[in-house]
Amino acid sequence: MSYSKNSLRPAFTIIEILISVIIISFSIIYVLKIHSSTRNQIVYISERNKLAFEDSLYLTDKVLKYNKDKKSAYSLIEDDIRVKKLDSHEILKKSKRDINIPEEIDIKPPMNMHGPTAIINEIMLKGEHSAIFWHFHLKDF
Q1: pTM, whole model, 2 decimals?
Q2: Cα torsion at 43, 47, 52, 53 (round to 10°)?
Q3: Comparing C-alpha atoms, which of 108, 109, 130 is closest to residue 119?
Q4: Among residues 30, 64, 80, 139, which is most buried (max CB within 10 A)?
Q5: Is 47 a member of any domain?
């Protein structure tokens, strides 16, 4: 049986198939690399947000009383917020930070000028991760 050139249907050669598989493989590897990088960024941002929320528990006016002291988040917010669940109590009690507040900065307007005065306190929280915050209090306006 002989086939004529016109009766054969066109097909891909093995080389064409291999090249297409290589191109698809590189595309998949690139997409997975981007996905992995994006996932790492999402995890980092999520962890950073959790830590920032945890830090915010220490930023009450009450914190200024505890220079060079180690306090739990629960001890700082227990008077302001009622926590009913015991699990929440334990989580807040486990979150402990060393609090360091250097000498306050008193800002006054220049002599012979009227203007607001302010007291600024730097609040340094040390523990699993360190954080620095500033507490501003306007005295006279």
Answers
A1: 0.59
A2: 110
A3: 108
A4: 64
A5: yes
> Which contiguous run of DSSP H or E holds residue 72?
strand 69-72
Closest CA to 72 of 99, 102, 52, 53: 99
Say how far apart CA 54 and CA 131 lie, in whole Å. 11
Angle at CA 72, nearest 5°, toward 66 and 78? 90
Number of domains into which the chain is organized: 1
Are the CB atoms for 106 and 138 separated by under 8 Å?
A: no
| Max Cα–Cα distance, the chain, nearest Å | 114
* pLDDT digits 0-9 by tens, 2-24: 555 566 667 778 888 889 999 99
Mean pLDDT of 122-135: 86
Parent domain of 51: 13-56
- 17 is a domain residue: yes
The encoded tokens of residue 21 equal 């598989």
In a domain, 74, yes or no: no
pLDDT at 4: 58
Assess if residue 52 is contained within a domain.
yes
pLDDT band at 46 (very low <50, low <70, confident <90, very high): confident
